[in-house]
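From the pipeline queue, job 12 of 40. The input is one protein chain; the requested action is below.

Action: predict structure.
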Amino acid sequence: VFLSSEYFAEYLDGLDLSGKIVADIGTGSGILALAAARAGATEVHALDINPNAALSALENARANGLGDRATVACMNLLAALPPLPLFDVILSSPPKHAGEPRDLADRGWHAGPQYRDVAALFEQARERLKPDGCLYVMLSSDSDLGLLGRLINKAGFRTRIAYERSFYIESMILYELRI
């Protein structure tokens, strides 16, 4: 478990997601999907490119009694989802670093040069959000915030910092993005 996921889940614990449809992109173990379900989301889609992560998220949803509200799938971002449903909330704690991943598991940490593995996240999320929807994305002060900011702006989002937590030598920054 990454500290960023723990901090993000703590933030979600304070939200009321009652009746919301939520997507967790890059779900990993499913911690954010589970936090969204705990916060009242009626439907959570946990998505990850790594089949082992998707399986882990499914097992964790079942083990926590939330399997009836969680749909888990192995896919790249939102690319393989049908046009509907639209989401009220999209969550993502994408890879924080731009280096080339060593293997599939390392894609949770490194997004490739120029963040190629997450570059389409913001455009895809904008297309899949309801008009009053929100994308929460957790980034690091060690991320290329300039490049990611340009991708966010290009997708047409308004940005505000929802939460920030510093530890050791970096900060985790949770951005709330709205259309």
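Job complete. The mean pLDDT is 93.
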